[in-house]
Amino acid sequence: MTIRTLAVRATLALALGASVASCGFQLRGSGGQYTMPFHSIYLGFSETSPLGVELKRNLRAGSAVVVSSPKDADAQFDVISEQRNKQILSLNSQGRVREYLLLYTLTFRVRDKDGGEILGPTEITLKRNLAFNESETLARESEEALLYRDMQNDLVQQILRRLAAVKTKA
User: Fold this and answer.
1) Which residues is 65 bridged to in the sheet?
2) In this structure, are residues 75 and 42 in contact, taking their beta carbons and an 8 Å threshold?
3) What number of H helices and E strands is found in the chain?
4) pTM score, two decimals?
5) H/E element, 129
6) Which long-range contacts (CB under 8 A, 24 or more apart) does 81-87 make?
7) What is the distance between the alpha carbons of residues 136 and 72, in angstroms, rounded to a whole number?
8) Does residue 33 carry a pLDDT above 70?
9) Which GO terms of type biological process are on file (predicted)?
10) What is the percentage of the chain residues whose pLDDT exceeds 90?
């Protein structure tokens, strides 16, 4: 390939990139910013819940105000249950665990300030596979923690999308 061909291709790629950027193109949901249908929300998580802290941080970065009292909120996020489970997925020929299935399940609902349901009980379940080797126990524990953290981030994004999509009374 000649230098001239490379220069033409680079110029075309640069022109295409500039035209896409100048027209206002933006990926849907880019930046994790969502417009919430309510001004303020109360989160029913404990203060030390990692999921609650992450959700609060993401909501504050967007358009919603997170309040500390349910009576000051336009919407109330109630946690019905939050569970982390680990199940055996497969065994090797000696009957030892070869693979685990990690599950993270959250059930929640959203109510308005009058107690009416905006979003009925909703369950989100995330699953990840974890390969296991007895000789690498410490590494697998770190990988398990990393997978749960990844599931938590995914769960927060799914909650934000569902919250942004709810219809409130006008």
Assistant:
1) 40
2) yes
3) 3, 5
4) 0.74
5) strand 117-131
6) 81/105, 81/106, 81/107, 82/49, 82/51, 82/106, 82/107, 84/148, 86/130, 86/144
7) 50
8) no
9) Gram-negative-bacterium-type cell outer membrane assembly; lipopolysaccharide transport
10) 54
- The first and second tokens of residue 137, run together, are 């126990």
**What are the helix (H) ranges across 23-136?**
50-61
Half-sphere exposure of 63 (CA within 13 A, CB side): 10
Q: Are 113 and 73 in contact (CB under 8 A)?
A: yes
**Which residue from 103, 153, 142 is spatially nearest to 123, judged by alpha carbons?**
103
In total, the chain counts a number of residues equal to 170
Q: Is-contact 105 127, C-beta < 8 A?
A: no
Q: How far is CA 49 from CA 55, 56, 74, 132, in A?
A: 10, 10, 22, 27
Residues near 84 by beta carbon (within 8 Å), at least 6 away in sequence: 102, 103, 104, 148
Q: Is the pLDDT of residue 145 over 90?
A: yes
Question: What's the rounded mean pLDDT across residues 108-123?
Answer: 93
Domains of the chain, with CATH numbers? 38-165 (3.30.160.150)
